[in-house]
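Hi everyone,

Forwarding the result from last night's run.
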Amino acid sequence: IRTTKNFWEQFQGEQKFDVLWCHGVLHKYNNFYETLNQMNTLQDKDGLLCITVPRINNVFYGDPDYRVYSDCHTDINIVNLIYGLALAGYDCRDAFFLQEKNSNLVK
């Protein structure tokens, strides 16, 4: 098993990965649809993509909580995450999506 910890933009060439783990970074891009598309080019055809993104809507108060996520450009929910994955060419038929009760994370 080979692992690397790096930003996806720094990878060049034809290098492909079996697993891409994206925790708490996707919401920081202005266009996360394009980001997913570019990430898909790094993944093997039968690879696994694991994503966790925070919601900027505070689940306890219902108001945007910019104090916690001041660099959040997009409030990603399950619907637009699935839409973005489909636009990027991911087959979501066997995907698993979760938003835990009283949690601000979409997995």
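The radius of gyration is 14 Å.

Cheers,
N.
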